[in-house]
Amino acid sequence: MGPAPWLLALWAVAVELLGRRLFPNWDVSYALYGARFVIERGGPWMNVWPGMDLLLGRLGGLLGQPEAAITLVGVLLNVATTLVVWTLFRRLGADRRLGWLAALATGLWFKPPLGGWIGDHLSFSVALAPALALALARGRWSNGLGLLTGCCFSTALTLKLNNSGPGLLLSVLWMAAVLIGRRPLPRLAALLPPLAAAAATALLLNQLAAVPGGLYPRIFHTYAAVLQSQASSQAAAPRLLLLPLQINPLEAISQRQAGVLLLLPLVPAFWLALAWSVRRLGRPGDQRLRHATALLLLLASALVGLSLGRGLTHRLFLLPAGLLLSAVDLPLPPSRRWLPGAVLLGWLMAVWLSYGWVQRRFERNTLYDSRLLLADPVPTVLCLGATTPAPAGVRVLRAEALPGSRPADRRCFTGADLRRGIAGVVDVQELANALAATYPNQTVAGGDFREKWDWRQATPQGRRAWVQAEADRINALQLPYMLERLPLNAVEVAIPGYGGWRAPRLEQRRRLAEATGSTAIGRLGELTLWRTRWAP
């Protein structure tokens, strides 16, 4: 095999670590908090991706810090995907140089702009793994592939559901199409290994997760709620017209969106490659499987883009590899077949560097640096009031004191103080990550308040029930302080369907403050610190 895999692995590691240092991402605060929650509380926190919390938390416990777990999983995922793409090109008889270029492009753009956020791509990759394994096996079913399929199926269900669900559906349909197209068909007995592996994996994960009521009942309950909620609108019909990257070309041109325009050529390239590969499906042998696999990579990337509501750079996924695998049979002289890959890789490298140049000084995370590869050795404290004395040798986050504060409130809070005496309510994970702690009132598999994930939370009855449950926990624990970010910010208000939740959110905050006897005493950015009736 030679040095190629090692060189490509080193490339993927270097790009991943450099990308982590260049591109901040707010969503890493959820992954980091969920991992620390598992370490401190023994079970997953987020109800829409308990498996990811479990993976990062158990690994973070072994490594001694969740930051290291996030970095390691991100590196391994990028290396594995890069090597899978390289191996696919070799197994399917593609030009070796084109395979190298596709692998380099994958390592560069699979997920580096995500910072530490790996939930979407990890979820879709696990769901897609059986189909990729079948392609690597050149379309031949085996018991080993059946075992992998069952393990991936049960595992993917525990990961980020708006990605693992579409990924599993695509995998099943693609595998069925490939196997039906072969003769002879696998016997029904071939279903036994995947079913046994799925059952065994589900039992193991259910034991490891320690979720009240069981892991999979909670997952199916969450899926049912999501299907009726706004999150399901991410796959609405109008968005199908914006495949693969959800780019509106006319809007991008009229508004001169430079970052979008840089990647705009990928849109016609996607549709041309899709049409070319569909047309070549009638070819025999390796050509048919090669173009079927190209379609798998192209459609997987389009589905990732369809299920994401965030930035453009999250959505390339395996699109470069799909484009180049489709281009293997272009009518070019053998000595020139590598040219499409060289052009694509050079262009993507230029785009990557331009994005990095713009974002190198940009830090969206004001409380915790999401670009950290390992835990910050300098402890952080939260101090209320500009003149509050802080201990030496720490990093200080200063909250603005509000008129309701008292002299006794003008103090500094450490991570230990947060664990013992501060309730956390809605979007306050970033501060907890800065103080390396978790909030005492939050529960295993409780997640965070998100109307888009659970339609019931958007109803008046659901909001009242939520306020009552939060107040009961805070009062039962007699927590003297509460931190929350219930009001919608400007970005959320601008999202279609969110603006109508502004007034109900404010009413929830008023009711929660009333039920806990709380007075606002400080503000840190969008966060508000309250003193409850239990403060001395």
Description of the molecule:
This protein is α/β, with parallel strands linked by helices. Helices cover 57% and strands 6% of the residues. The protein has 22 helices and 7 strands. It has a 7-stranded mixed sheet. A hairpin with a 2-residue loop joins strand 6 and strand 7. It is globular and about 80 Å long. The relative contact order is 0.11.
Distance, first to last CA: 69 Å
Structural class: alpha/beta
**Largest beta sheet: strand ordering:** 3-1-2-6-7-5-4
> What percent of residues adopt helix (DSSP H or I)?
55-70%
- H/E series: HHHHHHHHHHHHHHHHHEEEHEHHEHHEE
- Write down the Rg: 25 Å
| Low-pLDDT regions | none
User: What would the average pLDDT be, to the nearest integer?
Assistant: 89
SS element count, helices: 22
Quaternary form: single chain
Number of strands: 7
Please report which band the strand proportion falls in: under 5%, 5-15%, 15-25%, 25-35%, 35-45% or over 45%.
5-15%
User: How is the biggest beta sheet arranged?
Assistant: 7 strands, mixed
Shape estimate:
globular
